[in-house]
Amino acid sequence: MSHILYVTLTFILSVELIIGNLGNTFMALVNIMDWIKRRKISSVDQILTALAISRIILIWSLIARLLVSSIYTTSVTPGKLMRIIKIFWTVTNHFSIWFATCLSIFYFLKIANFSSYIFLYLKWRVKKVVLVTFLVSLLILVLNILIIDTRIDVWIDGYEANVSFSAITANLAEFSRLVLLVNTMFTLAPFTVSLTMFLLLIFSLWRHLKNMQHNAKGSRDVSTTAHIKALHTVVTFLLLYMIFFLSLLSLCWNADFNHRSLIVLFLQAMGIAFPSVHSCALILENRKLNQSLHSVLWWMRCRLKDTKWSFP
Predict the structure, then answer these.
(1) Closest Cα to residue 279, out of 58, 14, 85, 39?
(2) CB 194 within 8 A of CB 108
(3) pLDDT tens digits, residue range 5-28?
(4) Which candidate, 38, 52, 46, 55, places its Cα nearest to that of 127?
(5) How many CA atoms are closer than 13 Å to the CA of 55, on its beta-carbon side?
(6) What's the pTM value of the predicted model, to 2 decimals?
(7) Angle CA(278)–CA(282)–CA(287) in degrees, nearest 5?
(8) What is the end-to-end Cα distance of the chain in Å, rounded?
(9) How far is CA 14 from CA 59, 207, 268, in A?
(10) Which residues contact 159 (CB under 8 A, 6 or more apart)?
(11) Gap between the Cα atoms of 300 and 57, Å rounded
(12) Does residue 207 contact residue 113 with C-beta atoms inside 8 Å?
């Protein structure tokens, strides 16, 4: 039974990695090709392209991490290799989360409608707001890296001092738990920002619908549709983000498990769903990407038909 579960989870994990890689590559290629064709690119496409590229790198870093864990046992992983793995994952995961958060901020400022002077000031300067948010996130990233790098130095010192297998294994489990906990805590900031954008979007939609009823207009207009579409995007992001956060938090308490254990494999599958499934949801929600996807699928269907009829 455990072998069947292991094979099933490994298959799910592999499918998530393939779908995430294909989806993000498709998103990046469509936007880049459109940029080359039109000689310009919109702000939302810039964010989507940066998000897709960051997630492609993140997914490949996860694949490399899985390969390293299969080559080295947890107790003999070299210190320098451990430093590269931890810091590189921290950087790629940071950009993946914060670009998605910038996308939530962009949708909120573009679609929401408030009469507040502060909101209008930010709405007129949405590009600057997104840029400042990204720059602030870089400061947070530097702080995150410094903390993790310090903990890696402490672990290396303990690794060199303790030569017994049990001591090395215990130190590594404690180190992995601490690094995961630090990264989990640093993901709270973008999650809080995205959740705030979601709540404000709901409030903006509620006020808009109330004004429509007061003015005796139709049940839905362009603004209502835009609100609902943005809410779909942010809700998908928050749900997958919550699953990702819970998987990280759970891994903190299971850091002493072997990388091939069913619990760790299940939690890894939950975590990788965030950069994989969310990008697919963005493709379906974005009109240009959705149309491009239908065009590609239609082309593939025609090619398959031609191939089928070419055989006797």
Answers:
(1) 58
(2) no
(3) 878 888 888 888 899 899 999 999
(4) 46
(5) 35
(6) 0.84
(7) 165
(8) 45
(9) 11, 44, 11
(10) 79, 168, 171, 172
(11) 27
(12) yes
